[in-house]
Specification:
Blueprint: E1 4-7, E2 12-26, H1 28-31, H2 51-58, E3 60-69, E4 86-93, H3 95-112, H4 116-133
Antiparallel strand pairs: 1-2, 2-3, 3-4
Length: 138
């Protein structure tokens, strides 16, 4: 079976299969438990943000990926379950950053394991580019 690779600034995963990928918002009680290094950094001075934008930037999210590691990769010996699955949780500050990272990961998965919708989109892009060039294929 072919391996799936997910590469981001936060993680590198090499797995045989992905069981699920989800986004969870960390509630305020959990947010207090985060270390000071996980809190959002202050940005450069620029436009004044609205209260809603500031609150959105302070929200903490987790992207949780449950997967089957590639063969040859050993799991933590202390794991409680005897299955061959592993789970990774990536903490992200800000809703927009979280959605961008999630979208990027899903795009990588769809490129490696294409579904019908992804293949249809590729064909449509190809046909649109072909029509813009003015060439006719028979």
């Amino acid at each position: 079976m072919a391996s799936i690779v997910i590469v981001t600034q936060q993680c590198y995963l090499l797995c045989e299969a992905i069981n699920y990928i989800a986004i969870n918002e960390i509630d305020e009680n959990d947010e207090r438990k985060l270390s000071i290094f996980d809190k959002p950094k202050r940005g450069k001075k620029g436009k004044k943000l609205t209260r809603k934008q500031i609150e959105d930037l302070r929200k903490q999210f987790q992207i949780v990926i449950d997967f089957v590691p590639a063969s040859g990769v050993q799991l933590n010996a202390n794991s409680r379950n005897n299955t061959n699955t592993a789970t990774v949780a990536i903490k992200v500050s800000g809703r927009e950053r979280c959605l961008a990272l999630f979208t990027h990961m899903v795009e990588q998965i769809r490129e490696q394991i294409p579904d019908n919708k992804f293949l249809d989109e590729i064909v449509n892009k190809f046909l649109q580019e072909d029509n813009k060039d003015g060439s006719v294929h028979e």
